[in-house]
Specification:
two-stranded antiparallel sheet
């Protein structure tokens, strides 16, 4: 009884740390990009237009995904009246489930000590707290991977009903983000490798539920004569010549650095760099890389020596993920960005937790104090450069100068990912929906699907053109009177500097 009370107090303390990392100065870390925007428009189509589609457009891969994830989160969008600031809180709510499942996974893997250590490492991770504040396609990744691990650990111990915890891993890769294929494939390999016997009745029931959740995609494929399969074929066979993959990326040495970021990531006044499609060359931390690499290598050595089934589950996830990244980069000739490693982060925490659980109290205490101190320092000295709140303020200032329901074009003066993007949805939220602009060239088909852009783009812009431009760390906006149709986006936008800043 006394021991249970002590464990409860430990977990309560960890939970306080967890809440602080994810809710401290919440508006200063709210990030809104084109990823949040696409999700917002997709769910808006369900909530406002009352048009639940069979599939949702994936602009990154050119392959349509199922809409199960969007349907599941649509009540939250309805309750928050599509308010972007309130919508993002769902990411924080997701993370509340994540701390519970990482505790459960740790307990099944190595007991209460491992459970507490895994929960603490996750709770006090600056980088995990950043991702937990987002709501986008990758939000379920941590939770799904951890549930898959719990399912496999349960199956090993003879709890056959745990198979149903694998459903998210089998459904969401085709309904939220394909990066979850790492959890799906890992689970299948682990079942085969460990020769886990599954009762026929559970397999049949599992298959029934799987068929139901995937039926929208199946119906879509039948109706459109295998459109997704054709797109997938093009994705695999088409090379991207402009994609540059350096030696570090090719030989996967950068993955070791990615893993280390869950231990420690440097503070940044532009923390959105961790979310962007870019290399973060100035954020390498030698000591965390060495520590995480050494522990992982020791773990692999131990698994090969002891052949412990529970550890084999973790190793399967680790090897499958790394192999998947390599295939993604070589076969598909595409870069694998840091944020995709969220799907493997529970494995990293569990490996570190089990390693620490076998050390002395002095080593454990010192490690936890260092982990908390370094990550707390990063949290307290970091911020998002272009917060959602600031973007909303600028958008509101601009829209007040435009007539209600007026057609406008919205262009970015330079980078398509200007200040993270997401501007089109913010204008829509404020009552002015752009019908033309920078996004039309790249993802116009997606926004046409949701009734935002017209079915056919006009060769000329409407009477009002809004241009956003970034200079010296600020976002500038201007409103151009285009009633005489003299504005040419190809000539005017890229080199345009807007001197007036609305804040």
């Amino acid at each position: 009884m006394k021991k249970n009370k002590l464990i409860f107090l430990y977990f309560a303390g960890i939970f306080v740390v967890f809440l602080f990392f994810r809710f401290w100065k919440i508006d200063k870390f709210q990030y809104w990009s084109d990823d949040e925007q696409l999700l917002w428009y997709t769910v808006r189509h369900i909530v406002v237009d009352r048009h639940p589609s069979l599939v949702a457009v994936n602009t990154a891969l050119g392959v349509s995904l199922g809409s199960i994830y969007h349907l599941l989160i649509s009540p939250w969008y309805y309750l928050t009246k599509l308010n972007p600031q309130l919508i993002l809180l769902l990411g924080n709510i997701f993370s509340l489930a994540s701390i519970l499942v990482i505790y459960k996974a740790g307990e099944m893997l190595g007991g209460k000590k491992t459970a507490l250590l895994a929960s603490f490492l996750y709770s006090a991770s600056f980088i995990s707290s950043l991702f937990d504040r987002r709501l986008w396609a990758l939000t379920p990744n941590f939770l799904v991977t951890t549930l898959s691990i719990i399912a496999l650990l349960g199956l090993i111990s003879g709890k056959k009903k745990y198979i149903y915890l694998l459903l998210p891993a089998f459904v969401l890769p085709f309904n939220s983000d394909p990066s979850l294929l790492a959890a799906l494939i890992s689970s299948i390999i682990a079942i085969i490798l460990l020769k886990i016997k599954l009762p026929r009745k559970h397999v049949v029931t599992f298959g029934f539920f799987l068929l139901i959740f995937l039926s929208p995609l199946i119906f879509f494929e039948i109706r459109h004569k295998g459109q997704n399969l054709k797109s997938l074929k093009n994705l695999i066979t088409t090379r991207i010549p402009e994609t540059k993959i350096n030696a570090s990326s090719l030989f996967l040495t950068d993955q070791l650095e990615y893993f280390s970021r869950f231990i420690y990531s440097r503070p940044s006044k532009s923390s959105e760099i961790y979310f962007c499609y870019c290399r973060i060359e100035d954020n390498k931390n030698l000591l965390p890389i060495i520590i995480s690499t050494a522990i992982i290598m020791f773990f692999i050595y131990k698994v090969l020596k002891t052949k412990d089934k529970k550890d084999i589950v973790l190793l399967t996830f680790l090897i499958t993920y790394i192999s998947g990244v390599y295939i993604f980069r070589t076969v598909l000739s595409r870069n694998s960005e840091f944020f995709y490693s969220i799907v493997i982060s529970p494995v990293i925490y569990l490996i570190l937790a089990k390693f620490l659980s076998q050390k002395s109290k002095i080593v454990i205490t010192f490690s936890l104090i260092m982990h908390l101190s370094l990550n707390l320092y990063s949290l307290l000295n970091s911020e998002i450069k272009y917060t959602l709140k600031e973007k909303l303020n600028l958008t509101e200032t601009v829209t007040k100068q435009i007539k209600p329901n007026e057609d406008i074009s919205l262009y970015y003066g330079g980078d398509i990912f200007l200040a993270g993007g997401g501007w089109t949805s913010l204008f829509t939220y404020k009552g002015i929906t752009p019908i033309q602009g920078s996004l039309a060239k790249y993802w116009g088909h997606a926004y046409q699907s949701y009734g935002i852009y017209p079915k056919e783009f006009s060769k000329t812009d409407p009477s009002t053109v809004v241009i956003l431009s970034e200079k010296s760390g600020n976002v500038y906006a201007t409103i151009i009177d285009n009633r005489k149709k003299l504005f040419n986006s190809d000539l005017n936008v890229e080199k345009l500097y807007i001197p007036k800043y609305f804040k």
